[in-house]
Amino acid sequence: MEHSVLLPAGGAVTGWAACRLHGVNLLDGLATDGRTPLPVPLLVGRAGTGHKGHDGVRLLYADPGEVEHRHGIPVVSIERAVCDAMWLTHDLREAVVVMDMAAAARLTSITRVRDAVAARPRATGVILARQALTLANERSASPNETRTRLIWVLDAGLPSPLANCAVHGARGQLLGIADLLDVEAGLAVEYDGADHRDVRRHSRDVRKESAFREHGIEVVRVTGPDLADRGAVAARLIAARARARFEPVARRSWRAALPAVSLDQQLAEAEVLAELRREWSA
After folding, report:
1. 247 and 156 share a domain?
2. Has this prediction a pTM greater than 0.85?
3. Of 91, 83, 38, 50, which is closest to residue 64 (Cα–Cα)?
4. Residue 105 half-sphere exposure toward CB, CA atoms < 13 A
5. Into how many domains does the chain fold?
6. SS3 letters for 3-65?
7. Most buried of 13, 175, 241, 248 (most Cβ within 10 A)?
8. Whole-angstrom distance, CA of residue 217 vs CA of residue 177
9. For residue 184, what are the domain limits?
10. What is the pLDDT of residues 201-236, one digit of tens each?
């Protein structure tokens, strides 16, 4: 809000700050160390080249396109915000985090952002954005969950797992939601953040792990500090997969329950309902 007053007419907030204003609460404006504030990206347009910057601000001299208002602040569309936030990370993994968290907030989808990237083929950072979209997952629930998945895929070189997948027993009972699930191996990867230290949460985690193991699913845990050493985490994941049972589907006492409705369908339905509400209130 403080930096947005620097915007010239037609300018807009973009990047992580616009994502946050749209409602992507898991993008908190801090660097990966969790302490360093990121600059607020402001699109001042090509006519704003004489605009003076200030500490804590990143000036971008591109056309913001269609501008919306959130809390009285001019912002770009959520798709444009995600595109700009991805390339401003200058890091493939963090660009994937941006897309994952926008999807987690149920504000946009990989398909919609991919279309936005395709509409601006010469935009800055388009190559990074395209690469990030190939690795993104619409079911990730936290930045570190995404970072753990990327270690699995990029460092351990293992097949892409399912994210936040419900696992049921033979009688249809819910055994738990696996943060990451390797269906072929029968391996669940659980990311334990700070919130898992709560007694109730820890108790649920213990019950879930016990249920998984009783049904033949190997479990490996990763914590926040672990992520500082990707090589060590990758080695642990590979070792856990080697211990997994790789049981044939017919012999398993569990099954993975895939989501019935895609995020694109959810967004389309929500937009139709929102339009109906507007018509009813008119």
Report:
1. yes
2. yes
3. 83
4. 20
5. 2
6. HHHHCCCCCEECHHHHHHHHCCCCCCCECCCCCCECCEEEECCHHHCCCCCCCCEEEECCCCC
7. 13
8. 12
9. 144-257
10. 778 889 999 999 999 999 999 999 999 999 999 999
Residue with tokens 């006519």: 47
Euclidean distance between CA atoms 280 and 282, whole angstroms: 6
Angle of the 92-104 helix axis to the 126-135 helix axis, nearest 10: 60
Specify whether the CB–CB gap between 193 and 224 falls below 8 A: yes
Burial (CB count <10 Å: 0-12, 13-18, 19+), residue 178: buried
In terms of domains, do 130 and 148 share one? Answer: no
pLDDT digits (tens, 9 = 90+) for 70-122: 999 999 999 999 999 999 999 999 999 999 999 999 999 999 999 999 999 99
* pLDDT > 70 in the chain, percent: 95
Asked whether the predicted pLDDT for residue 143 surpasses 90, the reply is yes
Alpha helices by DSSP H, the chain: 15-22, 78-89, 92-104, 110-118, 126-135, 143-150, 199-214, 230-243, 263-281
* Cβ–Cβ < 8 Å for 75, 69: yes
